[in-house]
Design a protein that fits this description.
- By secondary structure, this protein is an alpha+beta fold.
- It is 40% helix and 32% strand.
- It has a 4-stranded mixed β-sheet with strand order 3-4-6-5, with helices on one face. A two-stranded antiparallel sheet has the order 1-2.
């Protein structure tokens, strides 16, 4: 009755309470405010991307250091990193070199990252996924 007289709606706030809680307010305004709040929350959330770093098993020291600097930067930004090792030609005969390289990367970033997907071989590529701690 009071809601109709004021030209507003009777909105049920918590139906499970004893007795149920209701408020007299403008339903359109309430829906609009909730919509705005949801949009604001969506705008502020960080999407986690997967960044890919490609290497070769016989990578040189300086090239390796440059790649590791990029890996650390990705972790600081809160992104996951997918390390891909591509084997070409006769490199396929020395898989252990690739495994050693991925283990070296894992040990170097152990303090800032954890292994999400263990190194696995798919065709001519060996992959490992790391995520920030």
């Amino acid at each position: 009755m009071a809601a109709e007289e004021a030209g507003l709606d009777l909105v049920e706030i918590s139906p499970n309470a004893q007795p149920p809680v209701v408020k007299i307010l403008d339903l359109g305004k309430l829906k609009y405010a909730n919509q705005k709040k949801a949009a604001e929350a969506r705008r502020h959330q960080k999407t986690i991307e997967i960044k890919e770093i490609k290497m070769r098993p016989n990578i040189d020291i300086h090239d390796y250091e440059v790649k590791m600097k990029a890996v650390r930067r990705f972790f600081e930004e809160g992104d996951k990193v997918k390390l891909t090792l591509r084997f070409r030609g006769r490199e396929m005969a020395h898989m252990e070199l690739g495994m050693q390289l991925l283990n070296r990367v894992r040990d170097e970033v152990a303090t800032i990252a954890k292994v999400e997907a263990e190194p696995k071989l798919e065709g001519r590529q060996m992959m490992m996924v790391l995520s920030p701690r």
